[in-house]
Amino acid sequence: MSDPRRDSKWWGWGDPAVAPELDSEALATLRERIGELTPSPLAAELESFELPEPASLPAALTEAVGEDRVFSSAEDRVRHATGCGYVDLTRLRGGGLEAAPDAVLLPADADAVRRVLQVCAAEGVAVVPYGGGTSVVGGVEPLRGSHERLVSLDLADLRAVEVDRRSLTACLGAGLRGPEAEAALAAQGVTLGHFPQSYEYATIGGFAATRSAGQASSGYGRFDAVVNSVRLVAPAGDLRTLDTPHTAAGPALRELVVGSEGVLGVIPDVTVRVRPLPAVRRYEAWIADSFEAGAEIVRTMAQGPGLPDVIRVSDEEETSVSLALSGPRGVTGKLFGGYLGLRGKRGGGLIVIGIEGDEESVARRRALASRALRAGGAAYLGRSAGQSWEHGRFQGPYLRDTLMDMGAMVETLETSHTWSKLNDLRRSVGGAISDAMAAQGTPGLVFCHLSHAYADGASLYFTFIARSRKGAEVEQWRAVKQAASEAIVAGGGTITHHHAVGRDHAPYMEAEVGRTGLDVLRAVKDELDPAGIMNPGKLLG
Amino acid sequence: MSDPRRDSKWWGWGDPAVAPELDSEALATLRERIGELTPSPLAAELESFELPEPASLPAALTEAVGEDRVFSSAEDRVRHATGCGYVDLTRLRGGGLEAAPDAVLLPADADAVRRVLQVCAAEGVAVVPYGGGTSVVGGVEPLRGSHERLVSLDLADLRAVEVDRRSLTACLGAGLRGPEAEAALAAQGVTLGHFPQSYEYATIGGFAATRSAGQASSGYGRFDAVVNSVRLVAPAGDLRTLDTPHTAAGPALRELVVGSEGVLGVIPDVTVRVRPLPAVRRYEAWIADSFEAGAEIVRTMAQGPGLPDVIRVSDEEETSVSLALSGPRGVTGKLFGGYLGLRGKRGGGLIVIGIEGDEESVARRRALASRALRAGGAAYLGRSAGQSWEHGRFQGPYLRDTLMDMGAMVETLETSHTWSKLNDLRRSVGGAISDAMAAQGTPGLVFCHLSHAYADGASLYFTFIARSRKGAEVEQWRAVKQAASEAIVAGGGTITHHHAVGRDHAPYMEAEVGRTGLDVLRAVKDELDPAGIMNPGKLLG
Questions:
Q1: How far is A192 from chain B (nearest CA, A)?
Q2: Cross-chain Cβ contact B252/A256 below 8 Å
Q3: How confident is the model over A178-228, as pLDDT tens digits?
Q4: From residue B179, how far is each of A388, B183, B186 by CA, in Å?
Q5: Chain B residues with beta carbon closer than 8 angstroms to that of A524
Q6: Cα separation of B226 and B220, whole Å?
Q7: Which residue stretches of A303-461 are H helix?
Q8: CA within 20 to 30 Å of A426's CA: A149, A340, B195, B419, which one?
Q9: Full-model pTM
Q10: Which residue out of B207, B233, B247 would a mutagenesis test of the A interface target, given it has the greatest number of A Cβ atoms within 10 Å?
Q11: What is the distance between the alpha carbons of residues B185 and B274, in angstroms, rounded to a whole number?
């Protein structure tokens, strides 16, 4: 690769050619629930986008990375100045940013990364490691800390692929996007099975740095659970862990690197466990009497045999409304409505399951899952609705652009808790979001689904939509986000199940890990990054 | 509890009433293979045991723990002066020790632990956290570091049991021995399923501090894999992690506490994932054509469905010899010989499998396992041999006492590697042990088995037996241990799969985690234990 990638919208999500529209029925439903929307088109083209002047960088940095690998056009700086959270997109759509990297560096390999970090540490230049730029928590925000200069270190050219077919492991370069990694693995008959909603643009390095979880992680395992070993290039030196399947040799340093969000160093590659490519992928939908009944079924499956690879349970609000808004032109919603009518059920908790593997194991696991679903009172809705979900599984962020164009605030956040405390947490966080939107004068919709199940608990994923407060979008968002975060902390949930910490959750890290925990993380950072150049302001505040 | 526990041999393993003997056939086999043994009885009774005079301790320490909770009799000091490794027992049997704790403290709760650490940090008293005292790597060795005084902190009275039946988690006190924890859990219908060979005397806190793996960990999960959340009482403050099933909130501090071996602080309790008590436990034996054929079967099972909870494959040497020595009066060996004769196989690789659960799931999983075993060319030996293994699963350390009485050196060590490198590692480590024993003038037996299987690799567990060099036992052991450790490092294996680091593996930690990794661990220690009082000389050297 010779230039940083530019194949996605600079102001929104993904392929510019993909622009889903809401059909009239969905529009009517939305207006009925959140009020009339005022369209909010883009404020500026890239050519007139307002950015601060870049600071000039040490010549040694150009030598470290290579002359043709330093980029400082406005487009490259804008594209590396934010992630893809609602607040990020709001600012981009507004036509200007108060901060951007002074330059984008595109190292060719881990040695170049090491040289860059040496120069930056010596010269006091802040470094923001950049993978897919899909963070929704401000993970690549160009915060300078105590430094006057900042570079974005785009890892797109770290593209190693080395498969050990016998051990079912693969060393994958940090810069590989999800589909690039899967294509390289598929050529050798294996899959990583990691499909977060950001899959199409997010990278392997980002998955590791943020403890990502994918839509099929109940079966394939969260990203941190499939990491065999890691490398970290830190200003103070390289850290690496052995590739043995288990060790009792002290604290697991692997688990310090995974989730380090760029504040300790750069992950150039990760060795992960892979699986044979599934021959069969079966997706289907069921409906339970309520979210809680659906969650109870999932608990049974997660604590016994038969947990599907993909398992999702929507709450009543998401079940009855959000499907009408999702997918190209609401096709899922219409099918779903038809099914509901057919079966005489209204509302309830929609369940999507996906099981992958060889024919025999899919049949065996499906029989176990079906038994648990029926025992819990769920009714089968068929394969179409499941396949529709599968088909549209990466569409959510596109739909957000559509809704933002229409003048809506659309945001998601997530947490997890043990089964004993899950329902209370869902009620308190959902209530806090709803109340906070109303307090902003913009009553809105709150959806929740359970999307990752474990023997001891599950995740909760909230989506909320309201009219955006024109000119006060960030203030409005902040009020709702804060209310939700405080409810999560009060309920004992984690501040993030899979979106990571970044800028947005850093204020809650003390609640998460305690004062001593923060002190330990800061001691590790001081050891690996004594000059404090790595991704300032993220994770540790 | 009012006194430290004294229900095991002070000079050896476990219940003094259990003393297995080798039958004449086993004795003959042993003599034939390693030469004539010179009996090596105990050198001294406890009454005449030589110990250094204890240093006097700060009065504040008595206040911190309570007056009736400080013990300094010779017996209590001896019982807390060593673990249960071959070298430890050799020294105990020799009638004297050069070092022992100045006193044993028995804190009533985590608050008392916290007070003790405060006093010790202020006064410069080294602290060795003590669970079951079953370390085979010198984990509780009373090394003082830069301090002149040292206490053993016996955690036996930390006995919390709190089960969340709905989330299938349990908070268990560090001082609970394996059977105590299981009995408390069984009363609520659940099990932890953690059965290392040390199970009968080792404690929950020790399992966590050492990243223990149990005989059924292929199915139930290694101890670190079942930890939901932890607490650590450190001199600098308390560290705790949330009990949510997953979080993306930064590096996993839980994984710094698990495996910390007492050098960072004291783990007062651990919250673990438990499972419903199995209704059925089916153990059986099979025989493969060779160790490598057996390992290949296990690889297939671990990378697909059907991996049993217990899975062990013995190499040809262990298969043909060690079973004759194991179990009360060699009953397993005799049965096994009968089976072999019956089926016309000699040597080969013995496979023991154990599957636990409800009747239906055991039947289903057994069918999958049987299919993989037959596909790999293994022959069924029946349930008796499997049940004999199960019956004798905690007998190994008793047999070691018998062999040491007879004048043998008996030691075990373990590693792991990916499937691609497992066979090479087995050959190189086995060869190094064999050569080193021969170089000591005591050619011996080396057995190896695979006892923990993962999708990406497996563990290797070596047992070696030779005549002990009377008066030079430690030197002899050290030479063999060093040769084995160097072969492990050269082969890229981990220095320990489940025995932990302690004193014996500390010299190999730089090979394991690299210089930067060691620096990070030391930075964490400096943060949590600035006075360096916690378990000096272990883990980090």
A1: 13
A2: yes
A3: 999 999 999 999 999 999 999 999 999 999 999 999 999 999 999 999 999
A4: 51, 6, 10
A5: 251, 520, 523-524
A6: 8
A7: 316-317, 323-325, 331-343, 359-375, 383-391, 396-406, 419-439
A8: A340
A9: 0.96
A10: B247
A11: 8
The alpha carbon of B27 is separated from its chain's Cα centroid by a whole number of angstroms, namely: 27
Residues 6+ apart with CB under 8 A from A184: A161, A172, A176
Sign of CA dihedral A49, A53, A57, A59: positive
Query: In terms of pLDDT, which residue wins out, B167 or B32?
Result: B167
- Residues of chain B with C-beta less than 8 angstroms from the C-beta of A209: none
Separation CA B39–CA B467 (nearest Å): 10
Smallest Cβ distance to B456: which of A245, A299, A456? A245
Residues A398/A335, Cβ–Cβ less than 8 Å: no
Q: What does R_g of chain B's alpha carbons equal in angstroms?
A: 23
HSE (side-chain half, CA atoms, 13 Å) at B78: 25
B172 forms bridges with which residues in the sheet?
A: B161, B270
Minimal CA separation from A519 to chain B, in Å: 7
As to burial, measured by CB atoms within 10 angstroms (0-12 exposed, 13-18 middle, 19+ buried), residue A320 is: buried
In total, chain A counts a number of residues equal to 541
Distance in angstroms (rounded) separating the CA atoms of residues A496 and A515: 18
- Contact check, Cβ <8 Å, B164/A250: no
**If you measure CA to CA, which chain A residue comes closest to B272?**
A456
Establish how many alpha carbons lie within 13 A of residue B183's alpha carbon, considering only the half-sphere containing its beta carbon: 8
Q: Is the CB of A418 less than 8 angstroms away from the CB of B258?
A: no
Residue in chain A lying closest to B305 (CA): A361
- The residue with tokens 């970044």 is A502
Do the Cβ atoms of B145 and B539 come closer than 8 Å?
no
Q: Which of A40-44, B82-86, B140-144 has the lowest mean pLDDT?
A: A40-44
Dihedral sign from CA coordinates of B440, B444, B449, B452 = negative
| Contact check, Cβ <8 Å, A246/B495 | no
| Pairing state between β B310-314 and B349-357 | antiparallel
Phi and psi at residue A449, to the nearest 5°:
-140, 155
Minimal Cα distance from A425: which residue of B? B244
Q: Which amino acid is at A406?
A: M
Query: What are the pLDDT digits (tens) for B449-493?
Result: 999 999 999 999 999 999 999 999 999 999 999 999 999 999 999
- For residue A131, give the nearest of A77, A204, A238 by alpha carbon: A204
